[in-house]
Design brief:
By secondary structure, this protein is mostly helical. It is 51% helix and 7% strand. It is globular, with a radius of gyration of 19 Å.
């Protein structure tokens, strides 16, 4: 049975132990392919590898996880996992133009030679985390600059970037570029601060509906929000943008950004089911339920936003909601999809969720001043 926390301190201790004692060892062991050296895309809830195509985002996120674990004091042994994962990732995924392909097979054969902005954002985040953990890890700052330079070709004349695929004008890829820019900004460099500022301003002027304060997902080339079937509101992204804009607003002394973060948080709460204590997947643009199922990742964003914008009671509720996803046979794995009826979809645990969990746990530790 998942724990029932009454305080954030209880939650912090439980998640700290789960991460250090179970999740990191599991994903550094069974979560690494002994043949090719790439990280596994999925593990079963019993902790066994399940073969699947290896997305660039999964590889980069795992590098971020293990580098961040080393930096946060969970043990120096996690840094070699990050280093080895990064080396194998670069060997398999890097293109001649400095970008990284979207997907490869377990043996390193390219499966999708495209380079989506979403994937590049996580490559940048992995580089920043590895640089923080291991300043002697090579010219990561230069590598990151080359990625950013290569992305200039994707610039949209109305601002921001044009993503590949069926939704070229979207908030989501910008959200992760924003996160990566903030991470690199912390390491110094005006170019990254300029990108952070650009995306924050784009979010406040275009992505967020001024009437409702809600973050919209999809747009036309002039950044006018789509309506109807395109009028998607995701509670998880309301929380994630709230967390980012609050951080940026504090660093810049920007009251408008912090006000926007507060409104985003309140709109995210409109998608929290009080019975299951989880944030649902999606709302319509009138805030009625569009998809009452609840994936794992919105729960981590609920917790992060509650810690920086909300209050302790909201943080405790978010921590309880998230913990039920971690109640699996192999401690350190997780379930991903909670259905509207309260049952979980039986499927493997995606490695990509570890990034979400790591950031939420680190935010919880930072909020309470917990040491590993």
């Amino acid at each position: 049975m998942p724990p029932r926390f009454d305080t954030l301190s209880e939650a912090a201790r439980w998640y700290d132990a789960w991460l250090g004692e179970a999740a990191l060892p599991l994903w550094a062991g069974a979560g690494v392919d002994p043949a090719g050296g790439l990280f596994q895309e999925t593990l079963s809830v019993e902790g066994r590898p399940v073969e699947a195509p290896r997305r660039a985002r999964a590889q980069a996120r795992q590098v971020f996880v293990f580098a961040s674990a080393a930096t946060a004091g969970y043990g120096e042994r996690w840094l070699p996992v990050a280093r080895a994962g990064w080396a194998r990732f670069v060997a398999v995924y890097r293109r001649p133009d400095g970008l990284f392909i979207n997907r490869a097979s377990g043996d390193g054969a390219p499966l999708d030679a495209g380079a989506d902005i979403y994937e590049q954002a996580f490559v940048l985040l992995a580089m920043a985390a590895l640089q923080a953990a291991d300043p002697a890890a090579g010219d990561l700052a230069g590598e990151a600059e080359r990625v950013l330079t290569a992305l200039k070709a994707r610039r949209n004349p109305a601002g921001g970037f044009r993503e590949a695929g069926s939704h070229p004008f979207q908030a989501n890829c910008h959200m992760h570029l924003f996160e990566s820019a903030l991470a690199w900004e912390a390491a110094g460099g005006p170019r990254w601060a300029a990108l952070s500022d650009e995306i924050a301003e784009l979010a406040m002027s275009k992505f967020i509906d001024p009437a409702t304060g809600a973050l919209r997902e999809f747009f036309d080339a002039d950044w006018q929000a789509l309506s109807g079937a395109g009028g998607l509101v995701e509670p998880g992204h309301q929380f994630e943008w709230a967390w980012l804009l609050e951080r940026w607003g504090r660093s810049r002394g920007d009251a408008a950004a912090r006000t926007a973060a507060g409104r985003l948080f309140q709109n995210g709460l409109r998608g929290v089911d009080p019975v299951r204590e989880v944030a649902v997947n999606a709302l319509w643009d009138d805030f009625s339920i569009r998809d009452g199922a609840a994936r794992l990742w919105p729960q981590t964003e609920h917790l992060k936003a509650a810690l920086v914008v909300g209050d302790e009671a909201q943080g405790v509720r978010a921590a309880r909601g998230l913990a039920q996803y971690l109640d699996v046979p192999a401690r350190g794995a997780w379930r991903d999809k909670l259905q509207a009826d309260g049952s979980f979809v039986e499927e493997p645990a995606p490695a990509t969720s570890f990034y979400h969990l790591m950031v939420a746990i680190l935010e919880l530790r930072s909020h309470l001043g917990t040491a590993a």
